[in-house]
Amino acid sequence: MRYKIAIVGAGIGGLTAAALLARQGHDITVFDQFAAPRPVGSGLVIQPVGQAVLAEIGALDAARAKGNPLRRMLGHEANSGLRVLDVTYDHDPEGANFGLAIHRASLFDVIHQAAQQAGVTVTPSHRVTSYKNAYLHFDAHDPHGPFDLAVDSSGVSSPLSPIEAKPLPYGAIWGTVPWVECGLPQDQLTQTYRRANRMIGIMPSGTLPGSDIPQAAIFWSMPRDAHATWRETPLDEWHAEIAKLWPEATPIFRQVTRHDQMTMARYAHGTLRKPYAENLAIIGDAAHKASPQLGQGANMAMLDASALAKALAQHGLQDALPAYAMARRWHVRIYQAMSWAFTPQYQSDSRWLPTLRDHVLFPVSQLPPVPRLLTRLVRGDMIPPMASLTPRV
């Protein structure tokens, strides 16, 4: 069956869904609110489960050419010097598993190209306000439709999703700067913490579109309402604090010479129990919001897109939507729960949680079989990312 499908939002999840569904022969229209499709944010990690979806749309080789392989995540506590995070992607040094660190612009570029090659076009400057009676409504345009199906991939501010999310107390400022040799391995995401109220990170993230200069994604956590105060603080004071907490990071962070080089990201946590409605599928952040602590956000959106496409290939439309939901149900719930549990240990005002983390949880994490479980958690395959596509209402 060939369906007429509208996709709301030309982000990572929306364009992945567009490429997959167009390759199945569906009539796809993508609507995006911006004048030209563009990514928002700095670097991210495409885990092995997400790389498998990139392979489905023929974009994996291009993504790997622009990204940077990560084989380890390592974190230290600034005051004590204790190692408090240490996860490898593959316990075989020559293993095939790694995280692909990549700038959002480069990831967007390769997925956008895959969507274009599948025959997808994007309709820009169309801000969706509602979906009623098979028609999409916009704030400055006439309605479009009718559509057999709308896919909501419009992210955390979706006007179509009924999700209720709880704001998290901490967010982070993110930026991208050229990679500078400073003694840190290029195949490692490295972080330093002061208790849980400071988290500093450096992630070698490959190259930007049209460039061969290696980049690094950098981040600094802060309370969600602290950004204005940070912008009013001279950068020299910020650099001095970084030098005190993590001297090795100074050459990287010194490249930030203006406050507007760093962008504030605020997080929320929530999950839709039913990520679909009549002729509407909801994917990505519009269906489940969480902190980026486990590095799964873009991966979850791509897995949603893949599950939806597989469900539509196997079932009629009315059965495909509950089948999509069931396929992703437990993977989403478990990773949402893990994110909820891990985030306060690294981003909160708590004093006892980081003490528990450093002196109990981390030592336990190094005892077999826990390291292999943590590896599976980070790779995204702690449980199969897609269960049976049997529809259940």
TrEMBL record:
A Pfam family recorded for this sequence: FAD_binding_3
User: Key word Electron transport present in the record?
Assistant: no
Q: Which UniProt keywords apply?
A: Monooxygenase, Oxidoreductase
The organism's place on the tree of life at top rank: Bacteria
**SUPFAM superfamilies in UniProt:** FAD/NAD(P)-binding domain
GO molecular-function terms, A-Z = FAD binding; monooxygenase activity
Keyword flag Protein biosynthesis? no
UniProt cross-references to Gene3D superfamilies, sorted A to Z: FAD/NAD(P)-binding domain
InterPro entries per record:
FAD-bd, FAD-dep_Monooxygenase_BioMet, FAD/NAD-bd_sf
**Domain FAD-binding span(s) in chain numbering:** 3-132, 202-315
Name recorded for this polypeptide: Monooxygenase, FAD-binding protein
